[in-house]
Write a structure and sequence with these properties.
This protein has about 90 residues and is α/β, with parallel strands linked by helices. It has helices at about 25-40, 55-70, 80-94; strands spanning about 1-5, 10-20, 45-55, 70-75. It contains 3 helices and 4 strands; from the N terminus they run E-E-H-E-H-E-H. The chain has a 4-stranded mixed β-sheet. The longest helix has 17 residues, at about 25-40.
C-alpha cells in the first residue's frame, strides 16, 4: 500500500493505492489522524483511484472519516465506488 498527501490551500488530498488490509489499515488510520489536526476549514478528499482492495476494517475507517468530515471520496472503478457508497450509507446509519 502507498499513501500520498497533497496539501493545497483549500483541500487536503489523501491518496491511497494498493491493498488496504491488515497492518496497512493502522497506517491509514494514523495518517488520517495526523491530517485531521491540520485540516482546519479545508476540504478533505480521499482518493481511492489506485485502491485494489479494502478489508472490512479499512472500510469502517473510511466510513468514520466520511462521517466526521463529509470528505469527497474519489473513485474510478465499480469496486471503489462500492467502498465509497458503503461509507456514505454507514455514516447515515450511525
Amino acid at each position: 500500500m502507498k499513501i500520498t498527501i497533497h496539501d493545497d490551500p483549500d483541500a487536503l488530498r489523501l491518496k491511497l493505492e494498493g491493498t488496504v488490509v491488515g497492518p496497512w489499515v493502522k497506517e491509514f488510520d494514523q495518517t488520517w489522524r495526523d491530517l485531521a489536526r491540520s485540516l482546519e476549514s479545508r476540504k478533505l478528499i480521499v482518493d481511492l483511484y489506485g485502491v485494489l482492495h479494502m478489508d472490512p476494517e479499512a472500510r469502517r475507517l473510511l466510513a468514520q472519516i466520511y462521517r466526521q468530515t463529509g470528505a469527497d471520496i474519489l473513485t474510478n472503478t465499480p469496486m471503489t465506488e462500492y467502498f465509497a457508497e458503503e461509507a456514505r450509507r454507514r455514516s447515515k446509519n450511525s
